[in-house]
Structure formats: structure tokens, C-alpha cells
Amino acid sequence: MSKTALIFGVTGQDGSYLTEHLLGLGYHVIGVRRRTSVPNTGRVDHLAGEPLFKLVCGDVTDAASVSHVVWQAWQDAYMEWRRSLQIRPSEGPRLEVYNLAAQSHVKASFDEPLHTTQATYLGCLNVLEAIRRLDVRQEHVRFYQASSSEMFGAAFDTRARVIEECSEGAIHWKSMSLTERERYQDESTPFLPCSPYAIAKLAAHHAVRLYRDAYGLFACSGILHNHESERRGEEFVTRKITKYVARWARDKSIEPLRLGNLNASRDWGHAEDYVRAMHLMLQQEKGDDFVICTGETHTVREFLLAAFKAAGSEAENVESLPVVIDSSLYRPSEVPYLRGDCSKAKRVLGWKPEVPFEELVRRMVYSDMRATDRG
Ligand SMILES: NC(=O)c1ccc[n+]([C@@H]2O[C@H](COP(=O)([O-])OP(=O)(O)OC[C@H]3O[C@@H](n4cnc5c(N)ncnc54)[C@H](OP(=O)(O)O)[C@@H]3O)[C@@H](O)[C@H]2O)c1
Asked: Which atom of ligand 1 is nearest to the CA of 16?
């Protein structure tokens, strides 16, 4: 079958890996980038010249632009299918639409709640509406929405008492009286979002379900836990750490690294693994939602120690590292603990994560060291 993919958010971390993955599978890929005053295509520039890849301009907050881009992609998919008929019989055209576009930084969403809602929720709604208005049979157009484990937010806090003790800006969770099973989040865990970002993602998540149930769209949400990579945005805590460690490895006298809450626990995987899951969701018989994660959780403190270790440090605690806790970097409302259970994705999609935590950290540190050496 001839397949065309339309990716909103192609210039982001996941967009670039997903493009590479789909091109490798023989897809025609149309990436949507928004117009910016400085170039924003750094993560996909290496794909320029690929015959099956093209970039078009569009902004998910602009319904007219979204509807034009979706309609044009459907025309492209249709023409591609017509051409492929001369070579081999095919069941019909197929367009896969991936919505990865969002204001994706949780702390920034507290400063820009309206923009976050527009890009993250209304953007998704614009794409869903554009697909609905194509009015084609559901097997021909399939939709993936980038939902987030941040939607679970403080779900654990409703079931167990987490005692916080604040001292000099640091939060210590003294006890977590949870059973082992309760410490996971899966597709049946209730949502209790704790940021404008998570609320916008949850609204989009429900919109996907509604369009699936009410209009019969083939629509999936991937509830992805944190995933990082060498291409992670530089303002995210993991990348901030690995960039600092790479510089520190070359110059031990640099200013200390300023960080917020080191006790937050996250389930961290590699983005390259996670884009495989996005694609698999759209190859199923029907649209559905899946939690994608590693099943392991690590604190920011553990990430920090692993990053310094990758750069040759033998420090066993943060106190002996050049790190300062800065309470201004705390979020107004913190999500203490995320850890997923992806049994459903393993069973239905045949997906599993390949990159373990230590390797993820090592790859990010080494990549930033190479970048530091290049100046
Ligand atoms: N990485 C994670 O841990 C994680 C976990 C769960 C869910 N997610 C979600 O998964 C998606 C991909 O994540 P990511 O890590 O790749 O995020 P990212 O690197 O921040 O990429 C976000 C993408 O959205 C684009 N975008 C933002 N506003 C837009 C607009 N108004 N119109 C069109 N495009 C717009 C950005 O364009 P510019 O390049 O121009 O900024 C960028 O291409 C996001 O929706 C994110 O919220 C991520």
C-alpha cells in the first residue's frame, strides 16, 4: 500500500526521529513547520534532498492553514496511490496524520497558559476538524495525537499521602505509602493534571476520544512518558544537565549548574524508541490509546549522577558536585512521581523500549561532549 504521512511538529525532537523512521519504511513524508524569524529546521536539515520528504508551512493554531495543509496532503496521498496502482494493486490511499505540535515545556506553560492552550489543545482540535471535514472513509486517514503522562499529574497523591518537607528550597518525600502496583500509571489510571500544559493535553486527549466515538475517526492517543535524546530541547532539565556536564568535563572551573527539584521521579526512555510506537498504533485494526514508557522510574538526582558518571566523575552524591538548588526553578505545582506500565502496548503493538536509562544518559552526554569540542 502506498502511504503518505503528514507530521505537525516535524521540527521538534520526536518529529525529526519520526520522519527518519517513516522514510526508512518507504513513506512519503510531508512535514509541517511554522514560520519563524530564525530557522527552526535544524533537526531535519540533514533530510533536505530526500526525494520522499518535503516541508510545508503551517501553524496548528490557524484553522485555515491546518485545513489547507490536511486537504493538500490528502490530495498528495490520493495521487500517490493512483501512481502506485500502475505498479501494484492497492487497497486504497492512506494518509497518516501525526500531531506532535505543542508548546511542550511544562514550566513555560505556567508563564504562557493561553498560548499553551491554543497550540496544545486548540491545535489538536483544528487537525481533528480538518480530518473530519475531508469526509473520507476511516481506513484511509488515520490520526495520532501526542498525549502525555503529565496528564496523570498528581494522580498518586489522591491515593496515598506524600509528606513533603521543605528545607532551603529542597523537597524531600519522607514517605510514600503506596503499594508497588499503585506506583504505575496505565490506561485506566485517573488523570489529575497539575499544569496548564497537562490540562491542555488532557483536553486534546478527550477530543481525540470524542472524534473517535462520535464521528468514527481512526484516532489514537499515545500517552507517552518522558522521552529524551541527543536532540532534546536545551531548556528541558535532562538536556540542561548533559550540556552542562559536557562543558564541565572540559573545564572544571565553570560556574555551578542551577537546578530546581531534584526529587521528581520520571520514567525516561529514548525518543527513537517511542516514535516506533506512534507508527505501530496507526497500523492496528482500530484506533485506541496506549501508554508508552519503560516501566522504570529515576529521580532527577539519579539522572544528574549518571550524567556526571558518564563524564568520568566518581561522585556518589549530589553534594560533592558543582550543583546549586535554585528554588526559583521549581514549578508552582510539581508532579512528584511518574512511572508507566506499557503492558498493553507490549501485548497489542508488540512494542518494547530498547534503550536503557544509563545508555540514554551516556548517549546524551557524549553527543553534547562532541558538540562542545566542535565549539
Ligand atoms: N518529549 C517528551 O518527553 C514528551 C512526552 C509526552 C508527550 N510529548 C509531546 O509529544 C510532542 C513531541 O514532543 P517533542 O519532545 O518532540 O517536543 P518539541 O521538541 O518541543 O517539539 C514541538 C514541536 O511543535 C511545534 N509547534 C509548536 N507550536 C506550534 C504551532 N503553533 N504550529 C505548528 N507547530 C508548532 C514546534 O515547532 P518549533 O520547532 O517551531 O518550535 C516543534 O516542532 C509534543 O506535543 C509534546 O508535548 C513529549
From this structure: 16
**Segment 203-250, tens digit of pLDDT:** 999 999 999 999 999 999 999 999 999 999 999 999 999 999 999 999
Q: How many CA atoms within 13 Å lie on the side-chain side of 24?
A: 10
Active site residue 215: no
* Residue among 41, 67, 104 whose CB has most ligand 1 atoms within 8 A, to mutate: 104
| Catalytic one of 27, 197, 211, 244 | 197
Check pLDDT > 70 for residue 165. Answer: no
Answer whether 126's CB lies under 8 Å from 63's CB.
yes
Q: Which three cell numbers stand for residue 226?
A: 518522558
Q: Is 274 a catalytic residue?
A: no
Phi, psi values for residue 258, rounded to 5° = -100, 125
Q: Ligand 1: which residue has its CA nearest to atom 39?
A: 11
Which residues, including other chains, have CB under 8 Å from residue 280's CB and lie 6 or more apart? 349, 350, 351
